[in-house]
Amino acid sequence: MQVSQLWRYPVKSFGGEQLQSATIEPDGLRGDHLWAVIDAETGAVATAKKVRAWSRLLECRARLLDDADPSDPAVLEITLPDGRCTRGDDPRTPGLLAELTGRALTLEARPRTYDDAPLHLLTTAAVDALGTGDPADVALRRFRPNVVVSADGTGFVEDDWLGRRVEAGSVALVPTQRTARCVMVTLPHQEVPARRDMLRTVTERNRVPNRPAATPAPCIGVYADVATEGVLAVGDSLTVR
User: Fold this and answer.
1) pLDDT tens digits, residue range 74-111?
2) 63 and 145: one domain?
């Protein structure tokens, strides 16, 4: 097995950037999920999971121009759905995001927050097992992984990695739980089309053991904690111990 793709999402609920190598820190991939769009009225973090208008944030892309200080607004570049680019330090940026969503928003660097763990791993075998008919890259991107692993075998192989040590490059990770899915996987973003049936498909193909059949959790991929920080690169061999 080997690392075939690396993805960073500098802004929560935005599209991310593909990397050739990444620094893995104790709390995850450097610069990942560091920025958040904030509802100016309520102070809540804007997430496409909760408010329909905020789903348009998924149509934006974000990347970091420099890794030295990912919290520096000058290095955060945002590409809007119409192709216009802006930066985190541009005073026009909040207005452009408000124009897109119809709500007053601000952009802030905050302590990194994740759903359940710092890193999200996904294998090509698991995505193939869904049989969605999407092109391979589209199928992978729908699930917004940090680390894509080209895996031997068939099926949801990463489900067997829970509690084990996963080593690649100079990094060691410990998968802690399967990645439960939500409405995000049904929404369109960049080249990924909407698929209203995706939650049902994941549920049918990968039922979680020990849950009643009437309430299966739609899971694909695994969340992982960082056991040893270091550098991870595309092409690194990956070993599960």
Assistant:
1) 999 999 999 999 999 999 999 999 999 998 999 999 88
2) no
